[in-house]
Write a structure and sequence with these properties.
Layout: E1 4-7, E2 11-13, E3 18-24, E4 30-36, E5 43-49, E6 55-57, E7 65-70, E8 75-80, E9 89-96, E10 109-110, E11 114-119
Parallel strand pairs: 2-11
Antiparallel strand pairs: 1-3, 3-8, 4-5, 4-9, 5-6, 7-8, 9-10, 9-11
Length: 120
């Protein structure tokens, strides 16, 4: 099974920017990001399809977050700007061997998550 390792989560202040990274140990058709704040359901953030370069975003995400990737390095990034306290969450890297989706159950591979804390 493909393993995913995220990095880049930090304690930042509101208005700051942050870039998360995730590297896969093997091939994937797609990769992306979910996040989960305490007491809330897991939320789709963004995804990228390697074969086409197409990117997808969750509702209200595109204005603030940008996904990118380096297929040769099997690495994706999430550029986060103008962070708000509500962005505080564990951010999970995800991957799938054949497709993608906006629901957590659509993804086969999950990283352990990286904590982002945004203080006011």
């Amino acid at each position: 099974q493909v393993q995913l390792v995220e990095s880049g989560g930090e304690l930042v202040q509101a208005g700051d920017s942050l870039r998360l990274s995730c590297t896969a140990s093997g091939r994937t058709f797609s990769m992306g990001w979910f996040r989960q704040a305490p007491g809330k359901e897991r939320e789709f953030v963004s995804a990228i399809i390697w074969s086409t370069g197409n990117t997808y975003y969750g509702e209200f995400m595109k204005d603030q977050f940008t996904i990118s990737g380096d297929n040769a390095q099997k690495t994706i990034f999430l550029q986060m700007t103008n962070l708000k306290p509500d962005d505080t969450a564990v951010y999970f890297c995800v991957g799938d061997p054949s497709g993608w989706g906006r629901r957590a159950v659509n993804w086969d591979y999950w990283g352990k998550g990286t904590q982002v804390i945004v203080s006011s």
